[in-house]
Amino acid sequence: MSPEHEQLYRHTLHELVAAGVEFCVIGSLAVRWQCSTLARWPAHDCDLLLPFEVPVLEAAVRHLQAVGWEIKLWQEPVALPLTQAQLQGKYYLRARRQEAILDLCYENEFRPWAEFAAGRHWHQGLPLATLEHLLDQCARRNRPADQEMLRQYRASLPLGPG
Question: CA distances (Å), 124 to each of 30, 71, 137, in order?
Fold first, then answer.
């Protein structure tokens, strides 16, 4: 990820916070931002988790479109208003601006929004999922990149006594 994209993500996320949109940052970028040993882990996009509530998703889409992000749902442009039926089973909306990708996930197969929301914490003015939740999601998803991230994380931990 280029420094320009990371700066764009941070700026956009701060705008969403200021607009009152409820979310938490998940994915490899959230891991990088709170785990110094994985600070160089590649992040190709920015993943957010939002509650699956149409008004929340509409507020996010409205704000992102207003500041130049193009929003799609399964490669189709998104127009407001959104409906529950339109979104159900599709898992996320994808926002693009220049070459930056912001995924607005609203369905998570590993952990419900309420658990992420209860555990999220603020880091540099942004709501992040806990490292515990993020690493647990990697373990459950168990893709090769997830396995490597977990391996590097575990290798960075200090050895216990004895």
Answer: 12, 26, 23
Residue pair 13/45 in contact (Cβ under 8 Å)? The answer is no
**Separation in Å, CA 18 to CA 14, 22, 59, 60:** 6, 10, 12, 11
Q: Which two tokens stand for residue 116?
A: 């992420």
Question: Strand 100-105 and strand 46-49: pairing?
Answer: parallel
- Does this model's pTM top 0.70? yes
Joined together, the tokens standing for residue 98 give 């220049």
> What crossing angle do the helices spanning 3-18 and 54-66 adopt, rounded to 10°?
130
Fold entry, domain 3-153: Beta Polymerase; domain 2 (3.30.460)
Distances in Å between the alpha carbon of 45 and those of 10, 55, 60, 86? 12, 24, 17, 24
Distance CA 78, CA 103 (A): 14
* pLDDT per residue as tens digits for the range 123-141: 999 999 999 999 999 999 9
- Dihedrals phi, psi of 53, to nearest 5 degrees: -130, 120
Q: Which residue has the tokens 């190709």?
A: 44
CB 26 within 8 A of CB 49: yes
